[in-house]
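TEACHING EXERCISE
Course module: macromolecular assemblies
Task: Read the component lines below, then compare them to the predicted structure of the full complex.
Student: A.B.
Group: 4
Components provided:
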Amino acid sequence: MTRTKDPRAAGLASLAGLIADETRAACLLALLDGRAWTAGELARRAGVAASTVSEHLGRLVAGGLLAEERQGRHRYVRLADARAATLVEDLAAHVPPAAGRRAVRTLREAGVESAMARGRTCYDHLAGRLGIALTDALISRGLLRQDTGFALTDAGVDWFATTGIPLASAGRRPLARACLDWTERRPHLAGAAGAALCRHALDAGWCERIGSERAVRVTPPGERALSALLGISPGALG
Amino acid sequence: MTRTKDPRAAGLASLAGLIADETRAACLLALLDGRAWTAGELARRAGVAASTVSEHLGRLVAGGLLAEERQGRHRYVRLADARAATLVEDLAAHVPPAAGRRAVRTLREAGVESAMARGRTCYDHLAGRLGIALTDALISRGLLRQDTGFALTDAGVDWFATTGIPLASAGRRPLARACLDWTERRPHLAGAAGAALCRHALDAGWCERIGSERAVRVTPPGERALSALLGISPGALG
DNA sequence: CCCACACTTCGGTACCGGCCGAAGCGTTCC
DNA sequence: GGAACGCTTCGGCCGGTACCGAAGTGTGGG
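Instructor-supplied answer key:
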């Protein structure tokens, strides 16, 4: 018999418990790129046996943080929705930066790391120096304001419309939301507008993914478009 | 020798681990009222021995979530800062609502519960129906916008100034932030502006705390002020 | 000066949960 | 059809930790 306890506290504790394991945390961080991973990929990434990660994924799915999709002998898994991604992002943003340091060993690792710092996806929006540059440009042009909160201005809504980026007013998801970048330690545009911008950038060929990682690179046409539409100089993305 | 792991994942897991215990979660939720509690009060609240809660508080302080202050034979403990409060709020907002249900047994409990639903503090800002009414009033008067994010408008900044509520541009804390209310399941005003509004409401006698709980009540002068300044009818707070 | 009180430290217990390897199951490829 | 592959289930091991009561420490009151 368990003593009469607060169910709110129990819910909070069990939710936090889902993330409170290093292996599960590593899976969630990997999945923050917004794409679907197989169980085996996550096991290799986390450095544990396949059987171990299988049990972890079962718990994360049961807890509603992940959605799964079976295809043949593969089990694809991804973050359940934008809410789950926000949860992980928010929590990760509270991790003291000192804990994020990591010794870079090989040249290849250094290359991947600098590409990630330059530009990457963060669930469904753009992050890294690219994300910061976009956010700064939107702010300096009066399309987004960050001084009194975090919201698009009317001019900002117009800009999306005239630029041809559809802003789906999807359900209850906020249009603009701040997401704290962990390499830059500064907020950048997330939410429905951030997702729309990212999708358009990939669709229109402004950016392309590098290899199978979550890093993205700005293409030459993308440089021209960003310069023309937002006055972003290519040097700002170096 | 521990295998080469991601220090980011380790940091995330250990942070979540601080919250991933029902007793610690209960303490954090109790401390969400923004005031300082003694170790004994928290022990009684959580239904565990004093020695148990003592160890938990030690871990929470070491983890940076709580700040402590010793006074004589008492150990006062409170949330370390607005960041820590936001962390707990955010996480609690993701707890499925079904987990929040709780059987109300006594008449006294029902009274406390309805008073809390009417108005309460959430760390340093106002929540409950009172918080929602304030937020709605600010939005309908064009002082706050929620449709494209969450930010004060220029008119909103002016309103605070002319009403005599100082908006300290304190450090990096955002002026306006959305906090999801767990009784109303709707966002209300938090951040520096929410804190300033709450402090002013208590200082000016618009509201007063009920007993030693976190519930607050609107006073008659407060009703007049809220009606005159924001057009909030007393009925909206019923 | 002594007792009551709030809290902490310590020893001990019980339990939960992460991990692995082996075996089992279904899919895909040759 | 058989072999390789990806994943899951199971049993067992191990470490970490939540919990308590009892004893210890320091403060405040009578």
